[in-house]
Amino acid sequence: MKSLISSVFILTLTLAGNAFAINKTTGGALAGAAIGAVTGKSVKSTVGGAVVGAGTGAMLKSGSTGKAARKGGAAGAVVGGVAAAATGKSVIKGVAVGAGTGSLVGEATH
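Request: output the structure for the sequence above.
Response:
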C-alpha cells in the first residue's frame, strides 16, 4: 500500500509540473486534487485539495493578478479560521481552505 501511495505521489508531481507550464492555477488544482484523492478518504478530500492547490497556484502568479490573489488569500484565511473555530472544526483546515478560496476570489475579481 505504501508503494502504491508513493508511486501515485511521484506521478502526481510529474503531471503537476507539466500542468504548471500551462497555468499555475489549473496546475495547482490538478496537483491538489490528486494529492487530496491519494491521502484522503472521500470526494470532500479531493475537492478540498483542489481548492487549496488552485489557491496556491493563483498566489504564485506574478504581477497584479498574483497580488490580488495573495490579498484575497489572507482575508480568506482569517474568515476560514474564525468559521472553523466557531463551528468546532479544525482551525488549520479552515485556514487552508479559506485561503485557497479567498485567493481564487481575489484572482477572479481582479
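The mean pLDDT is 84.
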